[in-house]
Amino acid sequence: MLNSGRARGGSGEWEQPFWQQRGWILSAGFLGVLVVLAVLFAITGNGAEGSSGASGDPSPAPTASSDSGSGSGSDDGGAQDRPAGCRTDDSVQARPTKAPRDFHWKANGTGLVPVSRTAGPLKYDGPVWSCFARTPMGAVMAAHSITDHLSYDGWRKVVDRQVVPGAGRDALVKTRAQSGDKSTTGSPDAGGYAGFTVLTYNRSQATVMVLVSGMGGGGYGSASVTVRWQDGDWKLVPEADGTIYGGVSQVSGTDGFVTWEA
After folding, report:
1. How far is residue 123's CA from residue 141's CA, in Å, rounded to a whole number?
2. Paired strand residues for 108
3. Are strands 111-115 and 220-230 parallel, antiparallel or unpaired?
4. How many CB atoms lie within 10 A of CB 85?
5. Residue 113 in this model has a pLDDT that exceeds 70
6. Which candidate in 15, 106, 179, 252 could, as Cys together with 47 as Cys, close a disulfide (CB 3.0–4.6 Å)?
7. pLDDT, greater one: 250 or 78
8. pLDDT given at position 80
9. Residue 35, Ramachandran bin (φ over 0: left; ψ between -120 and 50: alpha; else beta)
10. Do the bridges between strand 205-213 and strand 128-130 make them parallel or antiparallel, or are there none, so unpaired?
11. List of E strands, 88-157
C-alpha cells in the first residue's frame, strides 16, 4: 500500500514532507526544480523520465559498483566496526526487487518514514535513527531516514552523526540554518514516499533514487541520494555546495521503481 500522506501532529498545522517544504528549498533545491518540472509537465503533457544523479563530496569515492558482496551475517571482517548494540544481517547483497516483508511506517514527529527490522534502522536516539544493514536495502532505508530527519527539529544532531564530514556538510549546515532549528510547516496536500530504486551499490557507497507522490495532476517526483559506509553505518554524502539531491525529475508513473507495499 502506497504512503499516500503523512500523519499530522497536535499543533493543528499540516506538515509537509521535505521535498515540499519552503524552508528546505535553499539546502535541498528539490521543491523549486519539481515545481518547474510540474509546470512543464502540465504544458507539454510529458513528464521527464528520472535519471541517475549521484551526490558526492570532495573526498574520493569508490569506483566499483556491484550487486553482490562477500561474506554473510555481518560486515567483512566481522561486526567489530559496528557501534555498540548494533548488529545486522548483511548477507543479502542483491539489489531489492520488492519492499521488505517486515517494512512498516514509523512516525517521525509528525511524519512517516519506512523502517524495517531486517534492513534498519534498529536504533532510535531522538532524531538520529541508525544501525542500518550493510546491504542495498539498508542503504535505501538510510537514504529515506537521514534526509527526512534533516527537515525537522533536531537536524543538527543528524548532521553531526549521520552526514559525512567535509565541505558539503559545512555548506549544508549553513544553508539549512537559514530556516532555523524548528520544523517547517505547509499545506495539507502533501504526498508521500511511493517507491525507490538502487542506482549503484557496493559495500562502501550507494546511490538510491527516491520516488515521491503528490505532484500536480497525480504525478511523481524523483531524486537521488548518495550514502557512504563510514564508522560502521550508512551516512549521507552531500555535494560540496550542500545539496543532498541529484537527478531531480518529474516522472509519470512507478515503472522502474520498487513501490512501498504493505
Report:
1. 13
2. 111
3. unpaired
4. 8
5. yes
6. 252
7. 250
8. 53
9. alpha
10. unpaired
11. 104-108, 111-115, 123-125, 128-130
From CA 10, how far away is CA 22, in angstroms rounded?
21
Q: What are phi and psi of 80, to 5 degrees?
A: -70, -20
Distance (Å, whole) CA 47 – CA 17: 22
Least confident of 55-64, 81-90, 238-247: 55-64
Which parts of 19-166 fold into alpha helices (H)? 25-28, 30-44, 136-149, 155-162
Q: Is 166 left (phi over 0), alpha (psi -120 to 50) or beta?
A: left
Answer whether 88's CB lies under 8 Å from 107's CB.
no
Amino acid letter for position 173: V
What's the rounded mean pLDDT across residues 238-250? Answer: 92
Per the DSSP assignment, residues forming a β-bridge with 235 are 228
Cell of 189: 496536500
Higher pLDDT, 84 or 60: 84
CA distance 248 to 114: 21
The DSSP H or E segment spanning 175 is: helix 167-176
- Nearest Cα neighbor of 31 from 232, 215, 233, 240 is 215
- Amino acid identity of residue 164, one-letter, is V
Total-model pTM: 0.73
